[in-house]
Amino acid sequence: MSYRLLRPLRVLASAAVLAANLVTLPAAAQPAGVTRTDLQRHDLSAPGHEAVQVRVDLAPGAAFGRHTHPGEEIIYVLAGAIEYDVEGKPPVTLKAGDVLFVPAGTVHAAKNVGNDTASELATYIVEKDKALLTLAK
């Protein structure tokens, strides 16, 4: 095989692996009763970073287990009551209109503690080409 073809083949293979990760990660990391809806994703003026906005809906009693993000998460609660457990801080229950800031790499979890569906708008300022969410051990 020609060396001129190796580079394009490596680029295509890398793109295929990245696409597969983007398609499979959200489903694998999404517990029952939790719906994540991607709203927008844009490059930032800071090199290698992007902003991502996601709506997260949690059915009554549903929880999203301990996880981290490769950048900051800014949360705005749209509806319901959500208990957030952020490592190093006592748990806090937030309601519609409340906000929360989660520093990059900080382990945290969320649980709907109300009787109705709870929703949040999550805005991530993250490094590009990294998994948006990593489950904690």
Briefly summarize what is shown.
The protein is an alpha+beta fold and 137 residues long. The chain contains one helix and ten strands, in the order αββββββββββ.
Sheet/helix structural class:
alpha+beta
Low-confidence stretches: 13-28
Instruction: Quote the CATH topology of the largest domain.
Output: Jelly Rolls
Q: H/E series, N to C?
A: HEEEEEEEEEE
How many domains, as an integer?
2
Instruction: Please compute the radius of gyration using only Cα atoms.
Output: 17 Å
The order of strands across the largest sheet is 1-2-9-4-7
What is the first-to-last residue Cα distance? Answer: 43 Å
Determine the fraction of residues in helical runs and give it as a percent range.
10-25%
Q: What shape does the CA trace take?
A: globular
CATH class descriptor name of the largest domain? Mainly Beta
Number of alpha- plus pi-helical segments: 1
The total beta strand count reads 10
- Biggest β-sheet strands, sense, barrel: 5 strands, antiparallel
Mean pLDDT: 86
Strand content: over 45%
CATH superfamily of the largest domain: Jelly Rolls
In the CATH hierarchy, the architecture of the largest domain is Sandwich
